[in-house]
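anyone else get weird line breaks when pasting these?? whatever heres mine. first is seq + C-alpha cells for prot A
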Amino acid sequence: MSSRIYVEQAIRLFKSEAKLAKVVGYSQNAIWRAKQSGRVSAIMAVRIEAVCAARGVEIPRDKLCPSVFKPTKPRSDGTFPPAYGPTRRERAAL
C-alpha cells in the first residue's frame, strides 16, 4: 500500500504542500513528489510524524515509510505483521 493517502492527510492538516514543506524542512516540490510517487524517505517520514503529532494528529512513520520502519501497532490477534518478506531459507523451502 502506498503512503500517498498519509502524505495527503498531512497536507490537508497544514492546508497546503508549501506550508507542510516549510514546517518539515523540505521544498514544496519534494512534498509534491512524495505525494505523487507514494514514497517518502525515512527522514521525511520522521519529520512529518513529529509535526503532525505536535498538532494532535497521528500519522505513524511506519505508514509513511513501511520499507524502513516496522509496524508499531499489533494486529487484532495481538501479533505484529512481519517487517520484511520471507528469509532466503524460507524462500528456498517454497
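and prot B, same format (seq, then C-alpha cells)
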Amino acid sequence: MAGKSSETFLRLCMALAVIGMAGSMLLPGAAFCEPEDQLRPAMAFLKAETAKLGAPEIKGEEAVAGKSAPALFFGDTKMNNNFALVDKVQEEMGATATLFVNSGDEFIRVATNVKKADGSRAIGTNLDPKGKAIAAIKANEAYYGEADILGKAYVTGYEPLRDPAGKVIGVYYVGYPKGD
C-alpha cells in the first residue's frame, strides 16, 4: 500500500509541476511574481537603459502636449516627446514607465506610456502635487507603494533623477495597474 501511495503522490507532484510550467509559459512572470516584486527590476531596467544614452541634463525647453517644459536629455538623446525608451520598458518588463522633468514646483511627464482616459499618452500632465511620491522626491528619497495616477490605482516606484552634480532634475517612474 505504501508503494501505491508514494506512486500516486509522485504523479500528483509531476502533474502540478507540468501545470505550473504551462502557466508560466502562457503568462510569463505572472505565475510567480506579484507586481510589487517586479517594480525594482523594472526600475533598474529603466535606469540602465537611460544610462546607456549618457548623463542626464536639461538643455533648453520644448513643448510637451502644448505645455512648455525643460528639455530632458540623456547624452544627446532628447526625451521630451520621445517614447522609444518608455515603450521598451513596457515591452521588456510589462511596466508602465515615465520620465518626469522638474519645472519649478512641478514635475511634468515628458515621456510616458501611461494613458489618459481617452487612450492618449499622458504627456504634459503633472506628478500629483499632493501625493506621497512627490513628497518623497522633494525629500530626495524614492517612493515605492500605491498611487493614484489620473484616477486609476497603480503599484508604483518613483526615484529622483539627478544630473551629474546631484541636483534632482526629474523623476524616474515605473508601475503596474493595480489588480492586473
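btw re prot B: Helices lie at 2-26, 35-53, 84-93, 132-138. The chain has two domains: 1-32, 35-177.
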